[in-house]
Amino acid sequence: MKAHDGMYIDGAWRPAAGSDTIEVVNPADEQVVGRVPAGTAEDVDAAVRAARAAFPAWAATPPAERAARLAALRDVLDARKDEIAETVTAELGSPLPFSQAVHAGVPILVAGSYAELAATYAFEERVGNSVVHQEPVGVVGAITPWNYPLHQIVAKVAPALAAGCTIVLKPAEDTPLTAQLFAEAVAEAGVPAGVFNLVTGLGPVAGQALAEHPDVDLVSFTGSTAVGRRIGAAAGAAVKRVALELGGKSANVILPSADLAKAVNVGVANVMSNSGQTCSAWTRMLVHDSRYEEAVELAAAAALKYGDRIGPVVNAKQQARVRSYIEKGVSEGARLVVGGTEAPRPQGYFVSPTVFADVEPGMTIAQEEIFGPVLSILRYEDEEDAVRIANGTVYGLAGAVWAGDEAEAVAFARRLDTGQVDINGGRFNPRAPFGGYKQSGVGRELGTHGLAEYLQTKSLQF
User: Fold this and answer.
1) Over the stretch 113-160, which tens digit does the pLDDT of each residue have?
2) Where is the Aldehyde dehydrogenase domain (predicted)?
3) Which one is catalytic: 91, 212, 245, 445?
4) Would you put residue 263 in left (φ > 0), alpha (ψ -120 to 50) or beta?
5) Radius of gyration over alpha carbons of the chain, in Å?
6) Is 91 noted as a catalytic residue in this protein?
7) Eight-class DSSP state of 8
8) pTM of structure
9) For the purposes of burial, counting CB atoms within 10 Å of the CB of 341, is it exposed (0-12), middle (13-18) or buried (19 or more)?
10) Model confidence at 171: pLDDT above 80
11) What is the DSSP string of 116-143?
12) How many other C-beta atoms are found inside a 10 Å radius of the C-beta of residue 23?
């Protein structure tokens, strides 16, 4: 794993405009594993100009050829999956088995799904006396987070490429090495120069310059709701399109008829995986009064099993943030069942898997996104109460429903104000749309709905 000391612009690694660099730190041992350039507005401008110049030819490239480049990219990522997993583990601290299965494996699936979709999607249709044509929106500014560094890149870049857009990527400063590896894969896959460009740097500098650049037609951002608001405001001032995948406080609703042990164990695993750094994590577990204490005992036992298998959170700031939420939960009267603020290891940014019981819907830990391995268990009296609690936050990204009868679970799921609901532990589907209601975002990722974000529509009347 060797860090590049330049930016990937117009098909080549070029020196950065400035001399400042960003240290990449392994959060598991606090050791520096690399350095990348801190991009400036000048670097962003060069990348956008390259993307703009490459756009006409790429937009005119037949979908079958774009599909072929995506298939080649999928194959390169697959061939380098071990290197990807090791890189994510080094800069994010994720346990290697999780990096192999999820951080490396899922993006390969997503890239493959868009290779297939680009070859089969109907970019044109006849509607009465009109031909409705879908064409690429233009230059995309993609700003991605650190929690799933490669997946979030592929979830934006793959549909943009399939649509015929060109891209400038600004990855999170905590995990830029994975982005550099992806740029190498793009080159190896034969994607033409200028179609994909990479600028590493800090959000307030490179990210802001990209979001506000007048030659960027669409900003696709994944991250906090607070930053999403600022990007949305800047884009609105320029009448520019945005796709925002933001925060979540998802409910895992366990109905009385459910297999309680399975629902709780899967729910705890969902929260603790990736050290709780998942926007769609089911961080609120809703259990009926009649089974509440049994669920608390099961959750505590399941969380304790994660003690030696969970990785660190991404940095010291995030560690302090998660600990402050745990302290807030205790101070507001929630019952700390397992975990707490004490560090489980002397080195690294680790947080103990934590479970709270007796959490009231209005408590801070039941309303705000913590982004750490912290589960809140809430009780409900009946179905109406469960719906009220589940929908009672500003977020609406994901969720889960468990019931002995699938039809019962589906009926309840339809009442949830959220973009995606897993029924009795439903499996990940790379073709299903992902995105939120309310303050969880604008737009969708994955599948045809994700592709549509990068297209604009023209109708021809005859």
Assistant:
1) 999 999 999 999 999 999 999 999 999 999 999 999 999 999 999 999
2) 13-459
3) 245
4) alpha
5) 22
6) no
7) E
8) 0.97
9) middle
10) yes
11) HHHHH---EEEETTEEEEEEE--EEEEE
12) 10
